[in-house]
Amino acid sequence: MFMWMMIMYTTLALTGTALVYLSDRVSRFGFMAKLVQKGKNAQVAVGAVVVFTIFTLIGLIINFMNAIICAIYFALAWALCDFLFWFVSKLRKQVFMRYYAGGTAVILAIFALCLGWYQDHNVWKTEYNLSTAKNVENIKILMFADSHIGTTFDAKGLTEHISKMQKQNPDIVIIVGDFVDDDTDRENMVASVKALGKMKTTYGVYFVFGNHDKGYYGAERRGFSAAELVDELQKNGIKVLRDDTDLIGDMFYVIGRRDFSEVREQGGRRASMEDLVKNLDKSKYMIVADHQPVDYANQEKSGVDLVLSGHTHGGQLFPFNKVGKWIGANDAIYGLEKRGNTDFIVTSGISDWAIKFKTGTKSEYVVINLRKE
Q1: Which of 31, 111, 145, 265 qualifies as a cystine partner to 176, CB 3.0-4.6 A?
Q2: What are the E-state strand segments in 197-321?
Q3: CA 179, CA 212: separation in Å to the nearest integer?
Q4: Is the pLDDT of residue 1 over 70?
Q5: In this structure, are residues 176 and 219 in contact, taking their beta carbons and an 8 Å threshold?
Q6: What digits encode the pLDDT tens for the residues 316-328?
Q7: 344, 271, 290: which is closest to 174 by C-alpha?
Q8: Which candidate, 7, 14, 22, 59, places its Cα nearest to that of 354?
Q9: Which pLDDT does position 144 carry in this prediction?
């Protein structure tokens, strides 16, 4: 809790600094001197009105979390351009007659945010090829996480994404948490689960909980409980794993873990990796589905072969991609990593939560081609 409070206070401090900085920068445009002829302070005051008006409009149209993101990005772009143009002016030993840095900063920030919006609201396929010495047939695993139904797409949008994923002809589908969000309504939840239940696979569709699937604000807010979500999933043939294991085709296990939020935020517990694998046949391939990438050391030690996670949204925003790892909240942020004999994959997810931009990654589903060596 202390860590997240510090992140919140740091974000608010950055936002305030960014807004003050942008107010000063906007006042430096040539048209401001012509528009406001009462001195520098008056120009800064008008600049502040412009900046805070735009900030408020973005907050009302999207939400204030995204207004904060926009303010920070404009401030970063502006600081970078101010430095570059200052540096160039030193090299050429001549001050620029116009405030080109400001115009360049606006273009750069708008480009970065538009690209981030596009990468957030479109979904790509990311493919990995893995091999094992264990006795398994060739298996195509389709994995996705963090759909947060109702944020960047509703049930209809998910159905379209599922249609594209189905074309990959997966042998098994594993949903690694945060399928729904705190603001997902019951109608969209039911329709989304039905669409998911229609996927055709060899070995079925598996689901593990993420921190948002249970809902932070109670069933009243979104119209369904975690238990009702489970009922709907099971009714549509989707296998829900909560510290459970399932042996598939006498070839490989899927081990689904309770989400770490049940320990960290709810004071509960979840089974250790040691307990989960102690009665399993270690000669068979073992796949762990664990929403948050937070238990790598124990997972590697347990001897499992593959760990699938989401939660991080791939780091989401450049240049803050690695913050989760730096502060110790996550063991990894994105992509494929091998530790010992265990492969770890973290996906950026097919959607988003409150922030509507992905400037440091893009939305994706993952296809894993597992082959015997």
Answers
A1: 145
A2: 205-208, 238-240, 244-248, 252-256, 285-289, 306-309
A3: 8
A4: no
A5: no
A6: 999 998 888 888 8
A7: 290
A8: 59
A9: 98
**CATH code, domain with 339:** 3.60.21
Q: Would the pTM of this model clear 0.85, i.e. be above it?
A: yes
Better-predicted residue by pLDDT, 44 or 236? 236
297 and 190 fall within a common domain: yes
H or E, element range at 115: helix 100-121
Examine the pLDDT at 37 and tell me if it is beyond 70.
no
Checking if the pLDDT of 3 tops 70, the result is no
| Residue 137 and residue 273 in one domain | yes
pLDDT in the model for residue 130:
97
Instruction: Find out whether 145 and 311 touch, Cβ atoms under 8 Å.
Output: yes
> What is the DSSP secondary-structure string of 140-177?
EEEEE----BTSS--HHHHHHHHHHHHTT--SEEEEES
User: In angstroms, rounded to a whole number, what is the distance separating the alpha carbons of residues 347 and 183?
Assistant: 22
Q: Using alpha carbons, select from 318, 308, 293 the residue that is nearest to residue 254.
A: 308
Please state which of the ranges 24-38, 77-91, 245-259 shows the lowest mean pLDDT: 24-38
Domain boundary pick from 119, 154, 172: 119
Query: Is the same domain home to 113 and 146?
Result: no
